[in-house]
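A further point concerns the way the authors explain their paired sequence and structure data. For illustration, here is how one protein appears when written out as sequence plus structure tokens:
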Amino acid sequence: MLSRTADHLFWMARYTERAENTARMLDVNVQTALLPQSAHAAEQGWRAMLGISELLEAFDQKYGLMTARDVLDFMVRDPHNPSSIASCLTQARENARAVRGALTTEVWETQNLTWLDMQAKLKGNLLERDPSQFFEWVKYRSHLSRGVTIGTMLKDEAFHFIRLGTFLERADNTARILDVKFHGANGNEGAEIYPDDDVQLDFYYWAAILRSVSAFEIYRKVYRDVITPERVAELLILRSDMPRSLLACIEEVVGNLQQVRNDVSADTERFAGRLHAELKFANIDEILRDGLHDYLTQFLERIYELGNRVSRDFLVPLAA
């Protein structure tokens, strides 16, 4: 496959997944903002969400004051924010358009209709009237895109590059959510929002994190007990049967890399394989004892490096 084609497919999938992840984070923040808390605590919650996407500085430069309305506008419709939902869905559609010949009609039409519907919904002020309904729509369109891809595309290199993009983006996002949320819960900001003596608010806090990655029902099924930070971390890092866990994502990355291997990708496969093995045989007690923040910071660095290696080996055209 031409590296240019692989690049478009890879980034089409990453942008679609990124739009969904942004919708998930925003929806959780909208819901938790309804809980009793001080104005300062509510602001810190929005700042933490911007921090997940490394957009806090860009937001402060544009707006100065932190308000929920401005955060939603910045993260949903701002064309100058490359991680906004509008920007991501536009880029996903443009990448799909560039390689229509490598996609089934159903996959292309799903991407194109998502882009068209998004513009209509934003012009119709759905975001202002019912933000949760808009975020559910974004998630639904992402689910539909993945389902149509799996259900209609030949399991060839094009399919595997799409899957590579999806799971690299998902692993990055899950790690960021965990890092920011655990860091906030263990610091002064988290203590203010959810004090230790308020068990009900503590439950809502961790339940919101689980819901942000569609893991609330899964947690109940696996642990059948109260929600604890340690088990949340274990579920979202080490459970291979949890679709958005770090281990599940890296397993998919390793499997898809094997399907597209070429003459120069052996070192990248080894790099991904080592990361997979470390996750597979890790112990949550050891991770927490050594420091979850340090662990997740290192993981994010390695995911970034893995993405660069994939680009180097498969996506960037070789110089003449």
Remarks:
- Residues 221 and 275 are 28 Å apart (CA to CA).
- The chain has a mean pLDDT of 89.
- Residues 3-32 form the longest helix (30 residues).
- The chain has 17 helices and no strands.
